[in-house]
TrEMBL record:
Biological source species: Pseudoalteromonas citrea
Binding residue positions for Fe cation: 331, 337
Catalyses which reaction(s): homogentisate + O2 = 4-maleylacetoacetate + H(+)
Domain of life, per lineage: Bacteria
Residue ranges annotated for the Homogentisate 1,2-dioxygenase N-terminal domain, each copy included: 6-275
Recorded GO CC terms: cytoplasm
Gene Ontology MF terms in the entry: homogentisate 1,2-dioxygenase activity; iron ion binding
Gene Ontology biological process terms from the UniProt entry: L-phenylalanine catabolic process; L-tyrosine catabolic process
Keyword annotations: Dioxygenase, Iron, Metal-binding, Oxidoreductase, Phenylalanine catabolism, Tyrosine catabolism
Protein name per its UniProtKB record: Homogentisate 1,2-dioxygenase
Gene label: hmgA
């Protein structure tokens, strides 16, 4: 089943959209009365006083303001965790996981969140949470928002329809979406089941990385980011609103659908991006450039050039480097690297890193090509080669990434991961 929705385009634009003619006030945000007897509500994802270039906010024109809801009660967090992870010490061990199975029991998006790792502090608005969603049920009569951070969705299997306060957007493997902090949404399955990765960004909202001398075009192009148009429903019933707040889940009753926004304007709306539109720029001479050339989105940390988190992809591309060891180099890094595979094969790991699988190489922990890849790549004929059937990604962060107890002790962990480097031979024979 494929759905075509209408989208607005342009990363970070000041958009406006109305589902009924004249619902959006013109020339002011908060008139005494609004057409169709709507309520105005401001929603801020930066401080009021953030500089203009940084400032993010929407105005919603809705059937009821968000305050019309019940009291919150704590609910079970399931396998959802938040930073700081204190339940187990964080080892420097190189870690790898098989995909998490989609459950047999009916599991919707909220129940199907499994946290693999986190860093920084949800409360302090630094760092990230890294989750997998494994789901086989559409959220019915249930809505969700995350006060702890924006959520970057990286689908690996199954197409999703995200209903949000700003409208609807679909995402499938090969695409991503970002839902800003606090936006209410629900997840509808367009296939029987779905799996994907989520980077919950507690820090500065994602922006597009600079292009430097590359110029005015290339890498991610602003026009390829797609935002929903206003799409409201006027629905009443016994529903539930679930909030992730300060690391825990809470619920409250809500007697109406929160997707009652008839018009909105602003620059803090959900968006999607098709990763195949990424303009890949790489060497046409020699050596393996650093993977920062593949950054799609970055959350700055406040220190120039150092990310709270970078979202990096390893897309299909041509490899033409001459006199070069072409796979990723052997590596130790101050930044911590969490990777996942969406489809195909990753060039550093031809075995064991499978679609839906994940790995973690923390601050200063060594990693790089498995032994077989080294053998092959250091003897390969260096003709131009198309890397097809591959799409991996990395969440790279300045903060040490702490795996959860579930990640360390659960059945998906590959205890023998380090064996992939065991057969690296000594070739040196002295002078
Ligand atoms: O560790 C990894 O596989 C990610 C990575 C890829 C690459 O091409 C260069 C450096 C790097 O850390
Ligand atoms: Fe690396």
């Amino acid at each position: 089943m494929s759905h075509e929705y209408q989208y607005l385009t342009g990363f970070g634009n000041q958009f406006e959209s109305e589902a009924l003619p004249g619902a959006l006030p013109i020339g002011q945000f908060s008139p005494q009365k609004i057409k169709y007897d709507l309520y105005a509500e401001q929603y801020n994802t930066t401080a009021f006083t953030a500089p203009r270039a940084e400032n993010r906010r929407n105005w919603f024109y809705r059937i009821r303001p968000s305050v019309v809801q019940g009291d919150y009660q704590a609910i079970d967090n399931g396998l959802l965790r938040s930073a700081p992870i204190t339940e187990v010490p964080t080892p420097p061990t190189m870690l790898r996981w098989n995909p998490i199975d989609i459950p047999k029991e009916q599991t919707d998006f909220v129940d199907g969140l499994v946290t693999m790792a986190a860093n920084g502090s949800a409360n302090g608005q630094t760092g990230i949470g890294i989750h997998v969603y494994v789901i086989n049920k559409t959220m019915t009569d249930r809505y969700f928002y995350n006060a702890d951070g924006e959520m970057l969705f990286v689908p690996q299997q199954g197409e999703l329809l995200l209903h949000t306060e700003c409208g609807k957007l679909t995402i499938k493997p090969g695409e991503i979406a970002v839902i800003p902090r606090g936006i209410k949404f629900s997840v509808e399955l367009l296939n029987d089941e779905a799996r994907g990765f989520i980077c919950e960004n507690y820090g500065h909202p994602m922006v597009l990385p600079e292009r430097g001398p590359v110029g005015a075009n290339g890498y991610t192009n602003e026009r390829d980011f797609q935002y929903p148009v206003a799409a409201f429903e006027d629905k009443e019933g016994d529903f539930e609103l679930v909030a992730k707040f300060n690391g825990n889940l809470f619920r409250c009753d809500i007697g109406h659908s929160p997707f009652d926004v008839v018009a909105w304007t602003g620059n803090s709306a959900p968006y999607k991006y098709d990763l195949s539109r990424f303009n890949v720029i790489n060497t046409v001479s020699y050596d393996h450039p650093d993977p920062s050339i593949f950054t799609v989105l970055t959350s700055p940390s406040g220190t120039e050039g150092v990310a709270n988190v970078d979202f990096v992809i390893f897309p299909p591309r041509w490899m033409v480097a001459e006199n070069t060891f072409r796979p990723p180099y052997y590596h130790r890094n101050i930044m911590s690297e969490f990777m996942g595979l969406i489809e195909g094969v990753y060039d550093a790991k031809e075995h064991g890193f499978v679609p839906g699988g994940m790995s973690l190489h923390n601050c200063m922990s060594p990693h790089g090509p498995e032994a077989d890849v080294f053998e092959k790549a250091s003897n390969a004929e260096l003709a131009p080669q198309r890397y097809d059937n591959t799409l991996a990604f990395m969440f790279e962060s300045k903060y040490v990434i702490s795996p959860t107890k579930y990640a360390l002790e659960g059945k998906e962990r590959q205890p023998n991961y380090a064996q992939c480097w065991k057969n690296i031979k000594k070739y040196y024979k002295g002078e």
